[in-house]
Amino acid sequence: MNERAEAHRSYITYAIAAAVGLSAWMLAQPGQAQECPNRGDLDELYCDSDGDLVADTPDEVVDPNTLVFAYTPVEDPAIYEDIWMPFIEHLEEVTGKNVQFFAVQSNSAQVEAMRSGRLHVGGFSTGPTPFAVNLAGAVPFALMGSDDGRFGYTLQVYTRTDSGIEEMTDLAGKRVAHTSPTSNSGNQAPRALFPDLGVVPDEDYEVVYSGSHDQSMLGVVAGDYDAAPVASEVVDRMAERGLYDPEEVKVIWESPPFPTTSYTYAHNLDPELVEKIKEAFFSFDFEGTALGEEFTGVSKFIPISYKEDWEVIRQIQKANGVSYTPQDLAQE
Which residue(s) pair with 206 in the sheet? Predict the structure, then answer.
């Protein structure tokens, strides 16, 4: 094992322990409200004086020697560390910083790590992004997209081809896998959208939390679940890696597009460093890299606005009674 890999793994062990331990700190931490003309849904540690719904840059900023980067939790973090390595090397070159990959174990741990200052740049899943913004001071600035500026994924409801389930109302009385409470396509969107399709989660069918889109899909294939709402981008990549046979499953419903993983920086990073981080993202060439091979149909990072591009997600979460609090995040 080389020195870089050893350093990565040492930091990962430390950071995971710190993030897990931070849960209790978040729930017990006394208020540290600052003078602020507008805060909105942001935690009292942050302020939104310009009304863009994300935390303002504070007077005291940080310029770490080593940047820590984390991608949203996945079934096999080791694979994704290798996939992200070309980008990490590019980020190092542009920023002049060492960059370490943080293999997070859950959305909650990822949010807590940025809140604690141990995570500087992160890719947050669609549903947890508002939690990262409001609880951790994350500032979304980019998404993966195509040359024409398009981006997004859909919520698809999968079942086995031999399940006898042909439409959404057939889910009544079934065992359906949702991913986790804060997931957009894996839980929040189904709870907001499915009632209009004639089926109410937890009332018309049993909800079982699988923990991830990967586990939901594999559970459907294995027959552990009768069906599952999952993110199209995740199951497409699983099929490309041969993790399931597409002939064994079918889609019975698909939503309009949602935004994908948001790429964010911590609100208290030095503005000059932030500009270099953005430059690294927007100048990265996906072609011929492991990242480009993994995320087919993606050619570049494109700039986004949390206020505008996450509006539909916030609406879905509001319909589900979600509050951006440590208590709601702890349900993850």
Answer: 175
